[in-house]
């Protein structure tokens, strides 16, 4: 099997869209966006997302996207947010999430940015991954999205 970690560029917008839609279909309670919302987004939206200044990483197995994660950096903020972490069911247990998280955290550290992320309550597999990588709860909880009974917990990378 050929495995590649690709940093998404503008030319990869359709790969980003496809992996994002797969992630939302597989794990609808892990993301603030719904599958329907993402499906309704235009090609221009996906192009702009792919052109961002912070990295979005996708793991490809034999050319097929099987894992992803990205960074969002709010303007004038000393904190960056990890978002979109997902691994396809058939690729789980291969260490892709840990590798992506390490790469994303290192990108933030190289820029002296603090790192935060959100994890949905009940997603103990993801929460364990984040705790092992040095994240701690900030004590902040908020709704996953409007109308959802699920909440997300904010975690911050300990210095």
Brief descriptors of the model:
159 residues, seven-stranded mixed sheet, single chain, 33% helix, alpha+beta
Give an overview in words.
- The protein is α+β, with helices and mostly antiparallel strands and 159 residues long.
- Helix content is 33%, strand content 33%.
- The protein contains five helices and seven strands; from the N terminus they run E-H-H-H-E-E-E-H-E-H-E-E.
- It is globular, with a radius of gyration of 15 Å.
Shape estimate: globular
Helix proportion: 25-40%
Mean pLDDT: 96
SSE string, helices as H and strands as E: EHHHEEEHEHEE
Strand fraction equals: 25-35%
**Main beta sheet strand tally, sense and closure:** 7 strands, mixed
Q: Unreliable runs, pLDDT <50, ≥5 residues?
A: none
Strand order of the largest sheet: 1-2-3-4-5-7-6
Radius of gyration: 15 Å
Straight-line N-to-C gap? 37 Å
**Secondary-structure-derived class:** alpha+beta
Number of strands: 7
Give the number of helices: 5
Give the gist of this structure.
This protein is α+β, with helices and mostly antiparallel strands and 159 residues long.
Reconstruct the topology from this structure:
Blueprint: E1 3-7, H1 13-26, H2 35-40, H3 43-50, E2 56-61, E3 64-72, E4 79-87, H4 96-110, E5 114-120, H5 124-132, E6 135-143, E7 151-157
Helix pairs in contact: 1-3
């Amino acid at each position: 099997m050929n495995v590649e970690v690709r940093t998404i560029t503008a030319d990869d917008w359709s790969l980003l869209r496809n992996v994002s839609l797969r992630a939302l279909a597989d794990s609808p309670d892990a993301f603030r966006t719904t599958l329907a919302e993402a499906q309704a987004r235009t090609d221009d939206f996906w192009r702009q997302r792919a052109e961002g200044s912070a990295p979005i990483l996708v793991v490809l197995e034999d050319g097929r996207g099987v894992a992803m994660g990205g960074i969002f950096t709010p303007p004038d903020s000393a904190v960056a947010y990890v978002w979109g972490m997902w691994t396809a069911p058939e690729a789980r247990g291969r260490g892709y999430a840990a590798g992506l998280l390490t790469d994303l955290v290192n990108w933030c550290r190289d820029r002296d940015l603090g790192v935060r992320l959100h994890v949905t309550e009940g997603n103990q597999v993801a929460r364990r991954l984040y705790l092992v990588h040095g994240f701690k709860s900030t004590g902040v909880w908020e709704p996953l999205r409007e109308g959802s009974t699920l909440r997300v917990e904010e975690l911050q990378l300990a210095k």
